[in-house]
Amino acid sequence: MKAPRLCHKCDAPISRCSKTGYCRRCYARMVGTDRHIVAKRAAKRRELIQRDPQYRARHLANLYKHATMAPAAIEERARRSQEIFLNPEYRAKASVAARAVRLAHIPEHLRDEYLRLAVHGLKAAERREIVLAHFRREDPIAAAAFEGRNIKAFAPKSLIDADLRKLGWRMLIRAVAERFNVTEAEVLSAKRSSELIHARAIVAQELRRRGMSLALIGERLGRDHTTILNLLRRVQSYADSNPVVARCLIEIHRERGVQAA
Fold first, then answer.
1. Rounded CA gap, 130 and 164, in Å?
2. What is the pTM (predicted TM-score) of this model?
3. Least CB-packed of 25, 31, 49, 152 within 10 Å?
4. Residue 83 belongs to what H/E stretch?
5. Contact, 179 vs 160, CB < 8 A?
6. What is the distance between the alpha carbons of residues 190 and 240, in angstroms, rounded to a whole number?
7. pLDDT tens-place string over residues 47-80
8. In whole angstroms, how far apart are CA 104 and each of 75, 97, 110, 116?
């Protein structure tokens, strides 16, 4: 196991992805006292004041507010800010918000994988390309929308005739939902109508055929593994009462030569 990286100044643990080698507190202090950075920020502020009347008005209002504030009020404000900053709950929320901004260029459900790839020494651009390639294979339509590409070039007119065995798990849910005349959101919801239960059973059966674990199937469908196990046990009885389920089972098991009753 590799030793954790430490801040060059205070020896606090830092991320392996850190480009500066300093923790956030030390880096903020360095930036705030660096004369070149201070001069650069002042020049930018002067440019905004001259160019943007609204920014100029807000800047002057803040200056007037601080100039007329009593010293005791300034101390009380600093004390409250320090208390809020040291609050673990506030720091946790701030960390989540900062991560969302920092990783906005990565699909939300692949951000943990993106961060795990940093352990292997890959650059940020390489890690992003790896997770986006996985996203394109998993769901071409959503990937195209995320990357701002033309969705029509990737979206089939209908998934009603698509081969269930060749679809990623997200598109599999959409295809099965379309066959049962329900929506993908309804399949993933807490509703328990017969059509939704049958659709979930078909999705679980196909994902299980691919070797996916019960826990992972449950994560995909928003259920626990015991619910998935119950769906798999009852899928054949669903096929006996619903011809759509029977046709889906025949298609899923076609290459294995298994016929549904």
1. 25
2. 0.43
3. 152
4. helix 71-86
5. yes
6. 24
7. 989 999 998 999 888 888 888 888 888 888 888 8
8. 36, 10, 11, 16
